[in-house]
Design goal:
About 45% of the residues lie in helices and about 20% in strands. By secondary structure, the chain is an alpha/beta fold. The chain folds into two domains: about 210 residues, 3-Layer(aba) Sandwich (Rossmann fold); about 100 residues, 2-Layer Sandwich (60s Ribosomal Protein L30, Chain: A). Strands 3-2-1-4-5-6-7-10-8-9 form a ten-stranded mixed sheet, with helices on both faces. Strand 2, helix 2 and strand 3 form a beta-alpha-beta unit. Helix 1 crosses helix 7 and helix 3 crosses helix 4. The longest helix is centred in the last third of the chain and has 33 residues. The termini are far apart. The relative contact order is 0.11. About 0% of the residues have low confidence. The structure holds guanosine-5'-triphosphate (GTP). Guanosine-5'-triphosphate binds next to helix 1, helix 4 and helix 7. One of its GO terms (cellular component) is cytoplasm.
Length: about 375
Amino acid sequence: MNVLMLGIGQCGNRILDAVNREAFGGSSRLSKYYSRQKFPSRVETLAINTAVNDLKELRFTAAKDRLHVPNLHGVGANRGIGKQGFWENREMIMEEIERRGDFDIAFVMTSASGGTGSSFTPLVVHELRERYKKITVIPVMVLPFREEGSIYLQNAAFSMRDIMEVESDGIILVDNQYLKRLSGDIKTAYDKINEMVAERLLFLIESLDSEMLSVTDLGDFKTVMKGGLGMGTLGFYESDKKTASLTSAIESSLKPSGLLYPADVYEDAARAMIIIQGSRDSLDVDEITKSVEKLSTKIGQVFKGIVIKKGRPKILSVFTLGQVPDLEMLYAQAAQAIQDEKSRKTRAKKQLDDAFAYIEDLEEVY
Ligand SMILES: Nc1nc2c(ncn2[C@@H]2O[C@H](COP(=O)(O)OP(=O)(O)OP(=O)(O)O)[C@@H](O)[C@H]2O)c(=O)[nH]1
């Protein structure tokens, strides 16, 4: 399978760096000696940014895989400038991608709320669709902490609408706000979130490209991603000594603690795919079949995949949602923030006009 992973803007770049870190051996001391990725698929990565400093800070992404869009130093969270920046550099950006050959699937990772990534991503998705007729395109959109300010909220609202309007094959949602409970300080939270996203995406890629005992393939994945509202998220669970059974491990992969976006899977999910990796003796196919069937009665369509691989069972759940109450709340907050900003501007303007009114009929006296 030929996979393209694009990370656009600072957040997208950093998630891509986490992917490269993971793919080249993770945090192990040996990782720097790996010159090739550990995965069977051909995975091409490219970090795109308007801010050269964001690209410089990457540690695991090769220099040839960093593309600076010239004449800009970030777009200061301004999506208008971002879109213009993309149009002015469209051919250069797309040529850089096309030089990497043909692809079956592309993941385009970005924050929904900054300027560069959130404005480039819908346009890049559109271009990929135009240029690669058979490609599956999955945007991975990171929603902001809700207290990050009105511009970030507004950007998230408008960029999510833009990304829904271009024809992707389903959006994977990641919510910083939901995941911030993972850590006290922001830097550690970012690292942890990025690592979670990287781990899940690489698990997915690896599984789709493996000989599965029970087959799920790119076609099934696309069917899942097209379900419901065409947006969903990923869950994950890694068994340990304390895990009671395979069934409880499968159920745990759907629990809030492993999800990248808040959802009540049993209430909200439209379609799902459960992929189980583990050593042959740790996987009981009958038990897996039974628990997936049980899930199907609640969720509707559930695909299952089983990959034989050394170690305790690890489970990835992929699902799309039929309702997204948290996203609706984000829009309500964004609308309120835009209104507040407007009234603050009007008030400030009036105050200034009132101030100028004091000297309206006066001249400077020297
Ligand atoms: N999960 C995660 N979120 C991040 C990270 N870095 C930034 N963010 C979030 O991304 C949003 C800001 O978007 P950026 O990606 O920094 O913006 P950009 O696309 O580079 O655009 P400009 O800086 O405006 O040119 C905020 O909501 C941040 O919380 C990261 O490493 N991980």
